[in-house]
Amino acid sequence: xxxxxxxxxFLPYPGYFSLxxxxxxxxxxxxxxxxxxxxxxxxxxxxxxxxWQYIGVPLVKHKRGTAIGDIRISNNSDWAGKILHQLExxxxxxxxxxxxxxxxxxxxxxxxESLVELNIELMQKVCASLDIGFDYLVSSRMDIDLDxxxxxxxxxxxxxxxxxxxxxxxxxxxxxxxxxxxxxAAGIDLIIQQYENMSYPCxxxxxxxxxxxxxxxxxxxxxxxxxxIRATT
Length: 233
Description:
The chain is of the alpha/beta class. It has one domain (about 1-230). It is built from eight helices and seven strands; from the N terminus they run βαβββαααβαβαβαα. It has helices at about 15-20, 80-85, 95-105, 115-130, 155-165, 180-185, 215-220, 220-230, and strands at about 1-5, 25-30, 40-45, 50-55, 135-140, 165-170, 190. The strands form two sheets. A five-stranded parallel beta sheet has the order 5-2-1-6-7. Helix 6 links the parallel strand 6 and strand 7. The protein starts with a strand and ends with a helix.
């Protein structure tokens, strides 16, 4: 069984879904503390006139060190409407604007107060639309032996052992965290994902790599996105 573990990002880039597609079991890693200016409550889409812009979810004020799983959404403003408005510039140029907007509007109807629950729901629905399996657990709801966690690289090994994994896969950016010998001693293959950004034409704009899955959905049919994602697995 292959396991992947990642923080629950908000509408992440296609590479995140490529990682999900490679896993038999996915662990939503909501145990770390929330860090401002990360990807848990925001992401990037094209800007109408230059480069890119952020779309994001406003949060209730919280103490420093609060775990991701305890972060709450501030629903005092129409943040969903704001995001949809930020996407209107795609209307005249992106062939899948209408379907993508309708998809997101439906996703945003559930006004959850939990950021993790919102992000999980978004991941579930995106995976369903791309015909990708998404069998997940949430780390804060697992009975993890915290005494075994001595450093940031230990979480993946401990969780993988707990789930009986034969393989653990991670993006290249986190490779330095892991003790390959420890994984090998536990009988777990450590796999570092090799992912090539999904490139596609976006007439009237300059292509920007690594944007939210929303941008890919604006310009490409679900089948094409799925084909790219599966080609990298």
